[in-house]
Design goal:
- There is one protein chain.
- By secondary structure, the chain is of the alpha+beta class.
- Helix 7 runs antiparallel to helix 13 and helix 11 runs antiparallel to helix 12.
- The radius of gyration is 20 Å and the shape is globular.
- The strands form three sheets. Strands 1, 5, 6, 7, 8 and 9 form a six-stranded antiparallel beta sheet that branches. A three-stranded antiparallel beta sheet has the order 3-2-11.
- 45% of the residues lie in helices and 14% in strands.
- It contains 13 helices and eleven strands.
- The longest helix has 25 residues.
Length: 354
């Protein structure tokens, strides 16, 4: 057969590539928990929260395009999610494109969709200039005669069929924040998922630690140039807020305009699910509280929503014309206290009750 496709494959649009891909894969495997709305299959927010990777990272350094970078998740959310839910997986990487495709093709031929990293700047259907080599997509098929690959992406309703050459460029990109080295995640799903509250508490405790600064970075910062500013966790939010007022003195007018305009992009549009991933985390906490009745998760849902709303408000102000750095700085300074309250609430939700 020249054309192989896994179908039916359940797919919905998602706000975040990783949790959207993992949600679809769970639905394909038919796994969920009783008590969830509908048929018991988890939504994207629940999946994101179970990764335990809510985070914050801010970096600014000479030559970075755009001039600053914000992210709200850590590096290993996908693998931590799989470990927590007893899904066998690993991030398999290589520098050999033939070996990489053999792995992907082998999974498809065995009837298993497979998640991979692709650089968004190299995916022709996205039409973006910003590089991100950590974009999760799911491969569900290929066509040897057409020399194409079939991709499911959280940002598109239908699967996308792209040339093999474009796929290999995206799968083996050397873009920002670093080479993805054909990263591929083969998965083997269990017959049933472990207890939801146990998993949720472990994930909430993990997120609280990440927000406190442990394992909060998305990529290795040791290779960044001299003069780089890197800050993470709740303390990093304070650094970000304090740094904004200095931008007019550190950036030229064009860079300043770009930096301000990218704030709402990083907060709302760059695969964050809205509100710098905090809205997805609020949904996770709400779902856990609804299914289990746990009051600590209900409290955490409120604090996560408060933080998400404040991040979205910052994005709205940064989008306003004319540019007002003082107003942007003031809005950013509302964030550290809300982030601290959120981190403490997640820490309480992660504790086992007596």
């Amino acid at each position: 057969m020249s054309r192989v496709i896994i179908e039916p494959y359940p797919h919905q649009l998602g706000g975040h590539c990783g949790s959207g891909a993992l949600r679809d894969l769970l639905h394909w495997a038919g796994l969920g928990w009783d008590g969830l709305p509908g048929d018991g299959l988890p939504g994207e927010g629940l999946v994101f929260g179970l990764g335990g990777g809510l985070s914050f990272m801010y970096t600014r350094y000479p030559g970075l395009t755009p001039p600053m970078y914000l992210v709200g998740r850590n590096a290993d959310m996908e693998l931590d999610f799989c470990r927590r839910l007893n899904i066998e997986s690993r991030r398999q990487q290589t520098d050999d494109p033939v070996e990489a495709w053999a792995l992907v093709k082998g999974e498809i031929d065995a009837g298993r969709p497979v998640m991979v990293w692709c650089d968004i700047a190299e995916l022709p259907y996205l039409r973006v200039r910003l590089s991100n080599t950590r974009h999760d997509v799911v491969i569900i098929g290929y066509d040897d005669d057409q020399n194409t690959v079939l991709i499911v992406d959280n940002d598109r309703e239908e699967f996308q069929e792209i040339p093999m050459e474009a796929f290999r460029k995206a799968h083996g990109s050397n873009g920002f924040p670093g080479p993805n080295r054909f990263a591929t995640y083969p998965m083997r799903f269990p017959d049933q998922l472990p207890d939801l509250l146990t998993c949720a508490r472990d994930a909430a405790a993990s997120a609280a630690k990440v927000l406190a600064g442990e394992d909060a970075l998305l990529f290795d910062v040791s290779t960044l140039p001299a003069g780089s500013l890197v800050a993470s966790g709740v303390a990093g939010v304070q650094t970000f807020a304090d740094d904004i007022i200095t931008w007019p003195y550190r950036l030229d007018p064009e860079e300043l305009g770009v930096a301000v305009k990218t704030i709402p992009v990083f907060v709302e549009k760059a695969g964050t699910g809205g509100g710098m991933f905090r809205r997805l985390q609020a949904s996770f906490c709400h779902d856990v509280a609804t299914v289990t009745g746990d009051p600590a998760f209900a409290e955490a849902a409120t604090t996560c929503q408060n933080s998400a709303d404040a991040w979205s408000a910052l994005g709205d102000i940064a989008r306003s014309e004319p540019m007002d750095i003082e107003a942007i700085s003031k809005a950013a300074h509302r964030l550290p206290e809300l982030e601290r309250l959120m981190q403490e609430a997640l820490e309480r939700a992660g504790q086992r009750q007596p």
